[in-house]
Structure formats: structure tokens, C-alpha cells
């Protein structure tokens, strides 16, 4: 970045390279660390930890694992608060946990001994599953032909955990049990799981019959302690009833009867209905109260199954397939090929989108650096061309590197989208420090030539093209999240292409961004139009500090959305102490040594003490009248469940995928989406407004973007049951929204 640190004594390219190295390391480390905890990243281990759940493979073999013995293994889930996983029948939505065992010859696994589940109400819907801590035990039967001193158990588990959003997970687990030793460390955990399992109960004189609307149960032989109390019903066959609908129950002496709304869209008509009953209880932790399991014969015939309305497939797709089938769809798409015409259009869109990136406000401060480079080389055509090539190479290679990293992390199971680097508060903070450093240098607060040894300063003068290359890297880091028109569809397609084709799209995107400066550096008329170098360059250099400081303000605002006002204050204090250190290094004598040493120690201490405030996640602002009044809209936070509920009510749903670091998103939010006529039209069509905030990493939002064929933002989706989803353009207009609403 030789051109951005002028005049008199030129900066050291080595210092700039180190700063960018620290910048990139600070940005990528949180993602790399998170990738190590991905659901699909664990192999050969007994414990897997994510933000939502801790999964651990346990064993119980008090008599050893010799032939003829039965031992127990089980997957233990410790859910984070408000998260839950699912029972064998998940209810209205969700997926049950699946366990696939790899065992030595002579050893076989039985079914999961499912603990009694709980009921989780979600508006008019309901799910069956577990929160808190729960163990899913499985018996292993060791046959007489088993040989070996160790019983090696391998498990591939997949699950779905939900709160307001749903996140699929999977992991590989393994453990070894001694054949002739005792394994009983987790005896109490298994005992609790056995106690939570429903007890088998004879159906006796119990019966079940169905009419067009209800399932009528009449059960006999239930525990005497339950007499007169409210019960909960969990059919093992999914899709028979509507779990979230109200139902009635009553006791007639020892006989319990109930009328449960029957689902008109059931997929099975069993002659024997297996079910679990337990005492109804409020949500707690882990499994539900111990219950009983009965298999009750069906009397009479089942009513005919109604034809699925157009609304049902869309709702089911949203509730179930968006999470459960996402990984399989992405894997299949990765191996799919597209026609050359579509691939060519994707490349053209990437080229145009990259060129438009130069007009984004977030890129302008970096382009001011290149303005200074033009001024410096106004009469040196060869230096112009080399500088343009180096800058273009930095942009091109950085886009390819970002795209490759994105593809690699997504292949490992991470849910990321384009612009993911600015979802990391650590990288945003590093950019704040870097742009503050550049702005202070341009303003003349310090000069690298005075605070660095002359040998280091001379390196930059010898390597101006290296600085230009690093300027291209910086431009990519700050510009790539600013999705421009033509880029949304191209990037969404690129994510699903084979790796080489996907990297070609990213490379053309970088070429488009670098192309205007590359052409200008090779066209002599541009250089001739600039005045000759002179004292005016010092004034221009100092003026260019202000766009840098404006970028710092924007980045601080982004950080405030991600962490909190405390994080912003902590980072500003670090900037102040950094500025003091740089100023002190420009002094001479003992004052330089004393003040610079104290400033450096203060900077290190503040980084250690205040760093956690910078990366800590901000608490969500409480929703309510005040929040609505501040936005003058009725926007709600997006979640798959909320979107499903609104569609089930027959309302159209408009979803705004946005982020604080997306400048185009902010422009649309304060223009087309704030237009009074648009809001009146939304209300007239009874459209529900949902906002998906992607400022920080959110796998559920990333998965939904992938379902829509997009990888970056802004994205605007209009959903209506029975109709295809309508995707609006990235640069919204009120006329486009009115036209989309008119087609509802």
C-alpha cells in the first residue's frame, strides 16, 4: 500500500503485509475455530460440542462384553437452554434422531429405548421431543461368534435441534469396551433413562375408532394413580393427528376416553395403533414423566384420506425439508453440471456485479488510495501499468481465495454465505484498527518514516507493486460483502457448481471489480489528465484521511449491531491508545522510550481486558410497542417456524434478508421499504413482514438463502401458499414491490 502512506518518508511494505496478515488471521480464526466444532467435523471421538447441544456416546456394561452378554450404549444430549431435539414421532415438524451403528461381526444393535417425550407447543403447532439432558439408550447383543479382547463401537448420528430456528447436526462417535472388564461409570445415567422409558401395558379392553374428524380413544387398565388426572397422548405413528389442535378427554371410572382431531392428510392407516401416554406436565428438562406404552387395536375402518391442498406441500417443505434435506441437496448440486449458456450468464453477471462494486460506498475509501497512486505516477506509464496489474492480481486472487475458503467450509458442514467475513466481530474490529491506522497516517498524525528504521522504510520504495497488491487484498475484504445487482443469482449458482466452475465465477467477479482501475492504468489519457506531482499532493493526502475515518464510523456501527455499545467503546479506547503509541514513536529521546513503552503495555492490557466485550454477542432488543414505533412498521424477526405459522394462516409473507454491514440493504430499508405507499399496500394485502438479520452468523438464515438459490444479501422473498416464491431484485424500487403485490 505504498500509495496510501505519503509523502516524504515512504511506509514499509513489510509493516503493511504484517498488518494485513494479522487482519486476515483475526478474521479467519473464529471461522476456523467454529469449523472444528461443526456437526460433521468430529471423527473417532465420544463427545461433540456445538452451541446448541453437547452429544456424548456412553456405555454401560457392568458384566463386561463377553459373548452371550447384553450391553447398553447410548447417545446423551445436553441441550442448551430453549433448544430441543425430537422423539420417534416428531409431531407437526422436525425429524427424529437417527443412530447408525458400525459393529464387529457377531454384535447387533437393537432399537432405541426412547424415553417418554415432552410436548412443545409452537403457536397452533406442536412437536414431541426432549430438552435439557436426555439419554437415548440402545442394547447391543453379543453373539457367541464374537471374538476379540475389545468391543469397538462406531456410531454415525444425525439429529435436528430447534428453538425458534432449526439446525441439523451429525457426528461420528467411537468407543472401545473391554470384553472381560466392567464398564459402569454411567450407571446412574442409564438407570435414569430406563426409568424415563414408558412401561409396556396390555391393551386389555381398550379400543380406538376414527370418524371423518376425530380419533376416538377408549382406554382401560391405566395406572390407578392417574385416575382423574389430565393425560398427554403421543402416537408413535406420525401424521395421524394434528398435535397442536385442542382435544378433549374424560374419565369414566377407571376408563379414560379422548377425542383427538384426526389429520385428514395422514399417510398411514394402521390396524394396531401404538401410543405412549403420560401425565400432562408443563415443560421442564429432559424427558417427560414416565408413562405407559400400549398397542390398541383399531375398530372399524379409517376414513378416506383427503387430497392435499396446494398450501400443504409448501408448508411441509418449509418446516421439514429446508433443514433436513439441505445437506443432501447441496451435495447433489455440487456434482451437477449446468449448461454452458447458463454458466456464461453467471460469468457475465459476476463481471457486471464486480464492476458495479466500485460504486459502492464501502469501496470508495479504498479507491481513494489508488487516486493517490495515480497522482504519484502521473508521468510514469510503466509504473502505472505495473501498479494496475499488481492491484488487479490482489483483487483477483483474494476473490478466488475467499470463494475457495467459503466452498471448503460449506463442504465441511458450515452454513456460510458470501460476505461471511464481516459476520465476525473480530475481523470488523481488525478493520477498524487498520482503517484508523491508515487515516491517522494520511492526516499526518504520524509518519512511518520517523518511527521505523530507515532500512524498513526503504523496502516500501523498492516494492511499490507489493503495496498495490495488498491494496487489492484490502479492497476485496471490505468490498465483497456489498452485494451488487447481477451478483445475487451468480453467487447463488456458484455455490452449487463444481469447484472449478465456482472458482471461475469468483475469479470473474474479482476481474470485474479490478477492471476499471486496470483499464485506467493502461490508458495514457487518464495519466495525462492528472496534474503533475507537487505540494498539492500533501493537501490531497490529508483530505483522503476523512473517507477513511468515515469508513471507521460505519464499521463501528456494524460492530455495535453485532456486540454492543460496550464493544464499540472498548474498541474506540483501543484506537485511542494505538494512536498514542504511534504518536509517541515519533518523539525522540527518553520521552519516546518511556511514553511508547507505557502505551504499548496499555494497549496489550486493554486488548486482554476489553477484547471479550468486542466479540461478545449483543442481546436482542426487546420487541414491543417501542421497537415498532421506532421503525414505524410491523416487522417481526424471521424464523422458519414463524414463516410457517403465517403461511398456515393464509397470509402472504415478505422476508427481508439484511445485515448491518450491507450498504445496499440499508439503502433499500430507508427508501423502498420505508415508502408509505408500499407499507399501505402491504397492509391492504395482509402481508406479514419478516426481517432476517444476518449481521452475525446464523445457520438458519444461510440455509434459507441456499433454499432460495442465493448466497449473499440483500434478498427479498415474497411467499404465498400455492404459488412459487417471488424473488425481487437486489436494488428495490417501490414500483417493483407494488407490481409483485398486485399479482397476489
What does this structure look like?
With 744 residues, the chain is of the alpha+beta class. It has 4 domains: 2-34 and 332-423 and 462-535, no CATH class; 47-196, Sandwich (Immunoglobulin-like), CATH 2.60.40.10; 207-297, Immunoglobulin-like (Sandwich), CATH 2.60.40; 625-742, 3-Layer(aba) Sandwich (Glutaredoxin). Helices cover 44% and strands 20% of the residues. It has 24 helices and 24 strands. A 5-stranded antiparallel beta sheet has the order 1-2-3-9-6. α5 packs across α13 (499-522), α8 packs parallel to α17 (565-585) and α17 (565-585) runs antiparallel to α18 (590-615). The longest helix is centred in the middle third of the chain and has 31 residues, at 381-411. The model is unreliable at 1-44, 308-338, 412-420, 454-461 and 618-632 (pLDDT under 50).
Keywords:
single chain, 744 residues, alpha+beta, Immunoglobulin-like, 4 domains, five-stranded antiparallel sheet, five-stranded mixed sheet, 24 helices, 24 strands, disordered N terminus
Structural shape: globular
Question: What fraction strand?
Answer: 15-25%
Number of helices: 24
Return the average pLDDT rounded to an integer.
Answer: 74
Proportion of residues in helical segments: 40-55%
Give the tally of β-strands. 24
Parts with pLDDT < 50 across at least 5 consecutive residues = 1-44, 308-338, 412-420, 454-461, 618-632
| Biggest sheet layout | 5 strands, antiparallel
User: In which order are the strands of the major sheet placed?
Assistant: 1-2-3-9-6
Q: Structural class from helices and strands?
A: alpha+beta
Question: Roughly how many Å is the radius of gyration?
Answer: 31 Å
User: What count of structural domains?
Assistant: 4
Distance between the termini: 53 Å
